[in-house]
Each structure stands twice: as structure tokens, then as C-alpha cells.
Design goal:
Blueprint lengths: L8 H15 L15 E6 L6 H14 L3 E6 L10 H11 L4 H8 L3 H4 L16 H18 L3 E6 L6 H10 L8 E7 L9 H4 L7 E5 L5 H12 L5 H11 L3 H13 L12 H6 L3 H9 L3 H13 L5 H8 L3 H13 L3 E2 L5 E2 L2 H10 L2 H17 L4 H8 L8 H16 L3 H13 L7 H12 L4 H13 L5 H17 L3 H14 L3 H17 L6 H14 L5 H16 L4 H13 L12 H12 L3 H18 L4 H16 L3 H18 L4 H16 L3 H10 L15 H11 L3 H15 L12 H9 L4 H18 L2 H14 L5 H12 L5 H17 L3 H18 L2 H13 L17 H11 L4 H8 L3 H15 L6 H8 L1
Parallel strand pairs: 1-4, 1-5, 2-3, 3-4
Antiparallel strand pairs: 6-7
Helix pairs in contact: 1-2, 9-10, 9-11, 13-17, 14-15, 14-16, 14-17, 14-18, 15-16, 15-18, 18-19, 19-20, 20-21, 21-22, 22-23, 22-24, 23-24, 24-25, 24-26, 25-26, 26-28, 27-28, 28-29, 28-30, 29-30, 30-31, 31-32, 32-33, 32-34, 33-34, 34-35, 34-36, 36-37, 37-38, 38-39, 38-40, 39-40, 40-41, 40-42, 41-42, ...
Amino acid sequence: MAGMLLERDAELDAVDEALAALTGLRPNGSGPAGRQRGGLIAVAGRAGLGKTTLLTETRRRAAARGCTVLFARGGDQEQGVAFHVARQLLQPQLARYADAELRASLGGWYGIVGPALGLSGAADGAPPDPQGLRDGLDWVLTHLGTRRSPVVLVLDDAHWADAESLGWLTAFVSRVEDLPMLVVVAYRPEELPETAEAFRALPGRAGGRPVDLEPLTAPAIARLVRERVGKHADDAFCRECWAVTAGNPFEAVELSAKVAARALRPDESSAHLLRDLAAAVKGTGLVHRLERLGASTVRMAWACAVLGTEISPRLAAAVAGLGAEEAADAADRLREVRILTGADTLEFVHPLIATAVYRAIPDAVRVALHGQAAWSVIDAGLGPATAARHLLETHPENDPLVVRTLREAAGETQRAGAPETARGYLARALREPPPYEERAAVLYELGCASLLTEPATTVNHLRAALEEPVADPALRAAIVRRLSQTLAHADRLGEASDVVGQAARVATDARERLRMRAEQFMWDAFRADEPDSPARSRRLAKLADRLSGRDLTERYIIGLRAWDITLRAEPAHNAVRHAERALAGGLGWADEERGFEVPVLVALAFMYADRPGRAEDLFADGIAAFERQGWRGAHLSFGYTLLGYIRYRRGRYAEAEDFVRDGLRLADRVGRGTPVCWYAVTILIEVLLARGRTGEAQRLAEEYDFGPPFPAAVVFPDSQTVYGELLLARGRHEEAAAEFAAAGRRLEPRGIRNPSWCPWRLELARAEAATTPERAARLTDEALDLARGYGTASGIGQALRISAEIAPAGERPKVLHEAVAHLERSPAAGELARALVAYGRALRCAGHAPESAEILYRGLETALSCGADRLAEDARDELAAAGLRPRRLRTVGTDALSGHERVVAELAASGLAVPRIAERTGTEEREVELLLSAVYRKVGTDAAGLAEALHTTR
């Protein structure tokens, strides 16, 4: 072994240093080296420079130190096989468990990672998204790393790793410094695919040690040659060996073997023969040497080259068309000449040899061998996904069996979480081509596989599918729905609506027509450019009122009506009634065909109606469904982001920020500029402004190019209005007013008037109060009327609070007193804190400092409990201006109700008014009001929803 690792002392020192850091032991095992620390060693070098040998020695040294070693090798022929490398790494560790034990160990990840790792079949239904699968693989590897630490993960020939595995490992490596895990990879830089840019940047990062292998010097080659042909090899001979191999250790070893086999004298007299012998080690020389071994041996070598790595002798014989005895003889000859190695499983001695043999196969023969390999692996029971990579290398021949096999492989691969690979199989199936009557189905499947990656391409596939004659009405309907979904996700909501609208007009089945109308209502609800929104609203109301909710389609329509009521500021209790009707039979969050939009809208209808606790419960169910399904990209990002928005509406700003930042992190993985990213950035800016961190909000806006033009889709909260709020917070009143006015011009024609959903009137009034106070007053009056019509305590309180800002100073205390009274009956702690501080300020300015004290103390406490840091500073300033100092704060309660709060809450829920509760409990009426205010904020409801909320929290 030492002879094979000449001039690699520095590299081995790096390995020993990394292993010492990993194990916490000194390289010589003499004692502790310090804290265990993971890392990365990236070995780069041209073919034959000894990467594999270095990795083999690394594995040996790791095992000697008691490390668990995971090993995989990329394969030239297996690059298109999804998760080929991941399976090599993880399957040996997991396959030793019985199925029940494995399920218990992996928990919820079993159904997500099992199919990708070949541990279980893919279940029917929606597959995990690629990011969800990566998270699952991360969990499995991290779990192994902690349970069997220390772990050394070794990947050879990473340039040939499949894209799915390489992408996963590249992302995972960033965390290994914090794990008891060392990752060692070897690759040829010049052969990395274009898609591996992130991998190319790894060396030097994540605690990495970049190792670039150089050719051996002449003395090292001389030593290597003498170890194999004898110490009597003279200097001239050895130097010529170095010259003809360019210091490549693999070529030098093979050349030495040829010299020994031909019994050449290793001196100057034989030096002139070395160049021809070296040529026989690789390229055409190797091919000529192979051809001299006979036709059956050549076919066996070709079959092995087509099959790739870990070759079954029986399968190779079948592909080569050889009998068992003839194949065994051929394998023996190939082992003798150092082309193959192994017995039960065959391998090429070196990837260079495999590449040379494969490239030497005549084109027509290579195509035929791949075709034979495809059917041989099917016959061997290895499944369509194993056969598919071979079918990709064959020529189209109008063969229905090829189409069927590729479609089955694509379905299996997509359900395992590899849509990119599935796309390749289906694209090849189209070129076969499929039978005329199957073409639409193949195009549809291709569109489904492309949905997450290339929306424009998906649209083309699905439109092409609709142009085909489709005999099956269910298939045509599925194509239409998927096309509308894709258009909507590409921010082409008008087209999405038109597609399902046209399908509804021509549908002959009444239930299918209703479902298409439901889809159209949904996309129209998100359109910012809907041409006649009031007419659509009237149709929706008429339809929803007569539906019973007997199936999912009817419940979706009823849920959309609940959302429409919310937007139009119709009474909130009607929105709650329809939302409850929609939920009565269940709404699925993880329904691939239906999407998750309507369940989200129903949950948010509760939030705006002052039932945020109910909304949180629904989102918790939805997030759990996404995680079970492995949907950890856009779906989970929306879930966390909007859950954060609910916390914001409740005045829990620190929790809101945490959730929204998690949502933004997930959105970044999906891609900047996507709808989910707009939602996350919009809401995070809103939260930061509420916390008084205007500068941070501005930096976030600049980082994500948050500003005009805004998306065509409706985003909540409204992005343009939030942008105006950011401008207003920065003192740019005129620009802010322009944005608020533009938002109003966009929303008003659509009938979207609820100030609780979008407070553009209130914010415009604030922006224009100094310049056009009369117009500002009209705007706040309009907003207050709309808020009263909607009927939520939080909405009315917010409108009153901002009305007070516009009102003459003498009227402000009265208006703010009413605002506080409403907000005390709401779950909106943040709005209550603002109103209390404003009320205290107004009282102080009116000369009522003693009365203002208690109000300001309450405002300060509430602001601090919300995490509204800037508002708390304002409250302290007001107290100081009143000649008061902030007293010791009362403990701010958590979600748990105190005993006294529980008593008054249950009495209120039973229908008793405040005076009766005060009488029953022997408490002052004002104290009862304050206790109930805390109850509403903690439970997350208003008075109307209190009984139900208490029932669900028991």
C-alpha cells in the first residue's frame, strides 16, 4: 500500500488531522486532541492520479479509529439514475433493520425517503417535493451521524454522481462542522457537469480542506516501477516510464504489469518499447489489446461497460448473449489482463478502462446492447426504473412496450421524489413515439413532472396535450386543472381563470362543470386584474348559499364565499358561518389535485374575523399535513409565513418574526421572485415595522427588490400597501401617499374594501393628514364605516385609533377611549398597545396626567409583551413627560389562563354580561373587563367565539 501512496504525505497528514479532529484523539492515539469536529476533504485530480487509492487508505484509517464508514462511488453509466449515490451510502446501514424496526426508527420520514433509498415502494398519491426529500435525507444522515458517531462519508468519482444525490450532499456538507462527521469526496474537476457549480465551490468552505493531486515525480515513478518489475530496473528505464506516463501512477502501475508480463529487461535496451506498451494501457491501445482476446471476451467486456458498476455476471452474460460457461471463461480472461476484477460482482479495474471500453463499442452495437440490457434487467426483476436508463440510449422505434416501460419508470421515479429524472424518461417516451391515443396522457404526465421546475415548459406540454384527441373526459379535465394550476403559479392568473372557465362552459357532466367553476372562482379570488369582480361575487354568493357542502367541490365554493365576504367587508359573522360550513365535511391541505389555496383562505377568514386562535389550529393541521407529505418547499414556506402573520395580528411580534423568517428561509430555497417569496418578504417587513425596526425593514426590501412593479396576484397583506407603510415609516409621506392611492385605485373597483384586510384608506389618511386634513378625515370616516359594517372589534378599534390621529386634539381622548374599549374585546394585542399609548398621550396632552398614568403603564406592559420595542420606548417617553417613571412591570401572561381569568371567561361564554360577572365574582366591573381583555388575547378570539375557543383549549 505504501508504494501506491508515494508522495502523498501531505494529503495523508490532512486526513490524519481531520480524523483527529473528528474522533477527538491525536493521530497516534496517544490522547485526546480536543473537541470532536467534522469537516470536508475535497480531493481533486485528473484520472489515474490516485484519488481512489487515497480514499481507500482514508477508509482504512477511519475504520482503524473506530469510525463508521459510509462509501459510494459515482458511475459514468449511472449518472442518470436518481439517488444512485444516496442509496449506496445509506442503504447498507438501513437495510439491516426489519421493516417494522425501520419504520419506528425513521418515523414520519419513512414514507418520504424509503422509496428514494430503495427501502420501500412508492405509495400512491402525491410525491414529496425535492426539497422535502432532501430534508428527509438530511435527517437520516444526521441521525446516523449522531447514533454511530464518528462517521466518515466517502464519495469517489463525485463528478459522475447523479444530480439528485450530488445536490443533496452539496447542501448537506455546510452543516458537517457541527456534526461528528467527516466528508471526503474525490472528483475530476474537468468532468464536473455544468449543474454542479455549487459543488465546485465547496472546497475551502464548510471547514473544507482542498486537496489537489499532482503527478508523481520521476523518483516516485522509479520506486513504483522497481517495486513491480524488480530493483534492478535501471535509471534510464525508470525515467522513460515516467516520461511516457507523465507521472500518472495508474498508468505507471499498468505499464509495469505489462513489462513484467512480457518479461522485458528493465533497462535502457527496452526503453524504446515503453511508449507502445503505455499506449496499450488506455484508449485505442487498450481496445486493440481487448480485441485480441476473442469475440466472446469482447462482448463480455462491452456488456459490462454498458451495465456500469456492481455488475452481476449473470446479467452481463445475458446482455452479451453468452452462455454461462462461455461468460465465465470470458470474465476469467478479462481478469487476467487486468480489465475486470471481482467474482460475484464484477468491476472494472479502473474507471479509465471502463470509459475506454464503452467508447470503443460501435454505435449501432452500443445501442443494441443498451436495448438488450433494458429487457434483461426487466427479466431479472430489477424494475422499469433500472431499465429506463438503458432505454434512454436506444433509438426510437415506435415500440409501445418501450413507452409503457418509460412511463412506469417515470411514475416510480417521480413518486420517489425525482421529477427531473422522470421528465427525461417521459421526454424519451414522446420521441418513441407513443400510440396516438396515448400521446395526450404522456404529455400530461410530462407536464406533471415539470410543474415545479419549468412552468413555461409545463404549460406548453399541457396545451399540447389538450390539442390531442382525448377520449377520456376525466383525463381531459385533469389536464385542464393542471394547466390552470401551472398558469396560476406562474403569475398568469387571468389565463388560469380563462382555461377553467372555458372548460366549464363546454363540460357535459354537471359535477365536473361545478368543479371547473370552483377552480375559476379560486383563481379569480387571487387576480388583481379581474374585469368584473362584483359580478363574480354575486354569482359566488348565489351559488354558495344553495350548496349543502356534500362534497369537496361544494365545500371549496362555500369556503371561497367566506373569503369573498371578508374582502368585501360584509358582516364577519357571515364569513365565520360560511367558513364553518366549508370545514364541516373537511378540507384537505395536502391534496395534489386541489391545491391548498382554499383551506388557507378559510383559515384566514377566521383570522380577520377576530378568531386567530381557530386560524392557528387550522394552520397547524395544514403544516403537519405538508410535513407528512414531504412538501417542504413552497407549501411549508406558505404555512410558516402565514402562521407568522396570524401571530403578528395577535400582537406576538417576536414569535411572528421567527415563523416568518423560517418561511423566508424555505422560500429562498424555492427561488427569489416566486409568489411564496413575495409573501414572506411582505409579511416580514410588516412585522419589522411593528417592532420599530424600520432600517432593518428597508435593508430587507433592498435585498429582495421589494417594490414596484408588484405581482399580478393578490398578496395578503397587500404588498403595495406594505411598501407604502415602509415609505411612511421613513418619513417619505408624499411617495407613501402615492402608493396608498394606487392600491386603492386597484382594489376599489374589485370591491375589496375591508380595512382589516387592507388599510389603504387609513394609511393614506396618515400620509396626507398634514397636507390635506379634510380629505384625510373623509378617508378615516369611510374606513370606520366599513369596519363597523364588517363588525370586528379589532377592525373598529384600529380605524378609531387612526381616526384619532387625524382628529383635532380636543377630540382625541374620546375617540381613543372608544378605540381601547373595542380593542379590549379583541385578540389584537398589538393594536391595543398602540391605542393605549396613544390614549395615554392624548390624556397627558389634554392636561390629565394622573388619568394618563394607568393607561400608559398598561400600554407599556402590553407593548413589551408584544415585542413592540419602539412603541415601548414611546410609552416610556410619555411617562417621563408626565413626570412619572416606569414602575415594576406586572408579569405578562402566557397562553395559559390564570384561575381568575378562567372563571370570568367561562361566565362570559355562558352568556353573562360584565355587570353580572362582577356581581357573581365580587370583582369590580373594570377589573372584569381587563380580565376578559387578557382572555381574548390569550385564547385568540373575540367575545362571539369565546365559548368554542374555551371548549377546544380544555
